[in-house]
């Protein structure tokens, strides 16, 4: 039987003891170390080489997310399981970006926490499809802030440029050899992707982007 080596990081000793007792009751899990601060965890984990690190997100001297990111650069095979009292979208996003294999609330049932440790130890992710979809949406949102046109196809970008020149759908169709109705559909789609209601907003965006490129 392969024993899963677990490290616990939580600034509340009572929580650490409770989780440790829960995990140690399982034949295939061994708690090899504990810490109450980020600094202590970063110092101890590399030498102990656990399979799984259960990390509290909020710590007095930092964040479990930062510990996950830093420690995985030193121990890439380590599976980090984030444990927190709050369902926080930002913390969840940051945890995933830091390479965490899972994210569970402290209100989780004991048997579910044991199952979560086994799941991430086996190299699997605890992120459900809904969470993954939310992460992808956040990534697209961040990309859109850097490049507002990131979601547009090449054809939609060309049409957007022509909207910026003040052309009507019919004129755009003549320029691009497209039916006016087809252009109308393209315009509707690109406005939706840009979260805009009117083509004047799109034209203003083109003007702003051109000014930024010149600047």
Automatic annotation (TrEMBL):
InterPro entries reported for this sequence: CheY-like_superfamily (IPR011006), NreC/VraR/RcsB-like_REC (IPR058245), Sig_transdc_resp-reg_C-effctor (IPR016032), Sig_transdc_resp-reg_receiver (IPR001789), Tscrpt_reg_LuxR_C (IPR000792), WalR-like (IPR039420)
Keyword Ligase: no
Sample GO molecular function, one term: DNA binding
GO biological process: phosphorelay signal transduction system; regulation of DNA-templated transcription
Domain of life: Bacteria
Positions of the Response regulatory domain: 5-121
Sequence positions bearing 4-aspartylphosphate: 56
Keywords: DNA-binding, Phosphoprotein, Transcription, Transcription regulation
All residue ranges annotated as the HTH luxR-type domain in the record: 145-210
Protein name as annotated: DNA-binding response regulator, NarL/FixJ family, contains REC and HTH domains
